[in-house]
Amino acid sequence: MLAALANVLRVPELRRRVIFTLVMFAVFRLGTHIPVPGVNAAMIEQLFNNGNLFGLLDLFSGGALSKFSIFAMSITPYINASIILQLLKVVIPTLEEWSKEGQEGYKKINKVTRYLTVVLAAVQGFGMAFGLRSAINNPNVFSVLMIVVSLTAGTCLLMWIGEEITQKGIGNGISLIIFAGIVSRLPDGISTLAKYLNVGTINILNVILFLLIALAMVVFVVAISQGVRKIPVQYSKRIVGRKMYGGHSSYIPLKVNQAGVIPIIFASSLLMLPATIGQFVKVPWVQKIAGYFAWGTPLQTALYIILIIFFTFFYTAVTLDIKNMSENIKKMGGFIPGLRPGKPTTDYLDNVMTRITLSGAIFLALIAMMPHIIVYLTGIEGIYIGGTSLLIVVGVALDTMKQIESLALVRHYQGFMK
To answer: Which of 24, 64, 278, 286 measures 20 to 30 Å from 167, CA to CA?
Structure first.
């Protein structure tokens, strides 16, 4: 890894890619400080101390939502559009056909994703403007329209920045924008920790325990994120013309955490919705229901774990087509040793994937519960580590380092001819 970083400084093309990525990060962070016109940002900032859905969105935006800047919605509409289209592949044959057309199909899906992002951004922007109308200085149609246009334009700019980073920089641009937003909150966490130490709320032993738990969590997340179950596949020999093909062995890598961070995002968004609604609807029975779903209550914690496990199985089943995988193995003349091609192979892969998915679901539930465990063990509150943020940061860092290593290897590979 260190050698790959040293290569980045030596290879001009890689150096240009890194510099371009850092410049785009600077543009992103600059945009988080440009406020949306006609809004009282001080009133909005008070909404982010109650553990509601806005707090989760503010985490992804790097604090842009609490400041209500032009990047307040971050890249969330683009992510939602991508997830919606990915789920719609199961029910819309055209999208499934596009996904099998290679690069041309990818361009078509990406074009639809952009249009859907604009629609979702406009709808979300209108919802935010309507929900936060008490913080608008002059609440009228023109002010709401100005807010919607500003927020939608900010999301479109971030979408463009992400695509530019993917093409001209290093790593996946959309993921890196979320990564930069989460990492930018790190100085605030360190400042909070220092304040706790100064006022005597915690001692140095609490800080050491906190850091040890954080390090153990990072190691655990890296191990599970990289963990795969290798299913051996043997390909039989076949003669095409005068040439012989096949006769080699390979394997199918089934990831332990196939669903990634999506189940935690779905579960968090769903359970934070009642508390968010209760903050705006001042009706006694609504307030009572919102109290049951407050963050950390027994009901909320139990439902959180159940929903994470459910969404892990659901998202894995939608995104990973076991039957199609089995058919592809059969078409290529392959078979799993000891199993006949066809239904026996499909059933075996399905059983293996079910067990692996259960392990991944338990892992995600444990990671999601870590903030509660950390508060219980160390007494340190107000510093969010674990769950969504940790999975995203570690996952994006690993993927980016892999791309850096692959680019460095390509640039230094001499081959047979010079």
So the answer is: 64
